[in-house]
Amino acid sequence: MILTDVLGCDVLDNDGVRLGEVSDFRFALDSAPTQLLSHARLVGIVVSPRTASSFLGYERQELTQPWPVAQLLRWRHRGSFLVLWEDIAVMGPRAVTVRAGFTPYAPGLAR
Questions:
Q1: Could you tell me the CATH number of the domain that includes residue 75?
Q2: What is d(CA 75, CA 70) in angstroms, rounded to the nearest whole number?
Q3: What is the pTM of this model?
Q4: Are 45 and 1 in contact (CB under 8 A)?
Q5: Mapping DSSP to helix (H, G, I), strand (E, B) and coil, where does residue 74 land?
Q6: H-type helices in the chain, by residue range?
Q7: How far, in Å, CA of 31 to CA of 11, rounded?
Q8: Virtual CA dihedral for 101, 8, 55, 79, nearest 10 degrees?
Q9: pLDDT band at 60 (very low <50, low <70, confident <90, very high)
Q10: What domain count does the chain have?
């Protein structure tokens, strides 16, 4: 499965209740860069209850300029959360299901 195919898919809880849409992915670089790139690991998906559009980096708290754009994107993505990879039960072509008892994290989580 290609990750971009998952963007915009519904995210459901264990009971089938819609939590939102996949709007972004979070990766971690676990090692120093090799000759070309670092090895990236998928940490989780960002779920937005209102839109599948991107945060454009404004989920990071220190990004505040230009002010109108930052405020609009934060308002549009209010209530968004990060679901860690280990909390995803099923990732299918039409929906992502999270396991029971998952913990929602802030979307800008640095791990």
A1: 2.30.30.240
A2: 9
A3: 0.72
A4: no
A5: helix
A6: 67-76
A7: 30
A8: -40
A9: low
A10: 1
